[in-house]
Sequence to fold (149 residues):
Amino acid sequence: MRAVIQRVTSASVRVGGERVSSIGRGFLILLGVGAEDTDKDAADLAARCVALRVFEDDSGRMNRALADVGGEILAVSQFTLFGDARHGRRPSFTAAMEPVEAKRLYELFCEACRQNGAPVQTGVFRADMQVELINDGPVTILMDSRKAF
Fold:
């Protein structure tokens, strides 16, 4: 699994012009599910995201986690994180997981975030979404469950 974690002051998702979810302070997580991913990848990555300490403490150091600041997560599925554009001009998405199992693992990731104490809102799986955010910092972190934590 691949996650692009953006620290935000707010974020929202629209589908067909209608707002379907929104959060205040927290993380917008763009989540890609790869063909090799497992339940363990979803659980481990969720735990790492929730525990990520990128919010400033009283000294201005990035030392606080999501729970410390009362933050939320907006998790948006994004298979294009597994796009491979090394050959030609049109990316290949063969490394992305097929949609039925990808949706199950995306939902498992969201539930694991909740079990780790984070309030979670979601996008709409496989929908054409418009994602709005105010990136705070900006702070953007990349995580990949296939790379050692």
Notes: The chain has two helices and eight strands.
